[in-house]
Write a structure and sequence with these properties.
Elements: H1 2-41, H2 51-69, H3 72-77, H4 83-105, H5 116-141, H6 144-148, H7 153-176
Length: 177
Amino acid sequence: MVKLMRKKQSRKSSTTDALKVCLAQFSKLGEEVELIKQILQRELPPEHFSSRDIVRSFFGAAFLGVTFVFSKNLAELVPRLDNLRLLLIVLSTFFILTFEIYYIGYQRVRDPERKFFQFWFKRVFTFYIVAVFVSFHLSYIYGLTTVIGAENIIKLVIAMSMPCAIGASITDLLKKY
């Protein structure tokens, strides 16, 4: 009988020990899951601007720009744009790009030595040059340059550069998420 009671106590203690081990493992697993959540939710500093970002910006500019190429309104509107409106388009484009660069990228910079102008200049310059190139390229390959005439090509490129620049900068936004 004593042997039987010892066996029962031995089973209970081994079951209790196994239960304690399982609870400890679950507790450790829960702590690790919380740590992973904290790592994923923390905003990481922005990556360095590289040639991969330039290639991505070409795709973003082409993706958004191609939607404007097929608009009949664009071909009718471009010859009517005066210099003031063209200037407003360029300024609006730089304004939108500046806000996008600041709120998506620069706010995550933790280095106080890195000034906004350094961070901003290479991105805005690259995005706008890519946008101008893509807008001219799309206009040329789809024949818009022949439809509107040679005297309005610059107006067309400037008008299309705004959506192309926004498309180029969207890839920076998508990279964050």
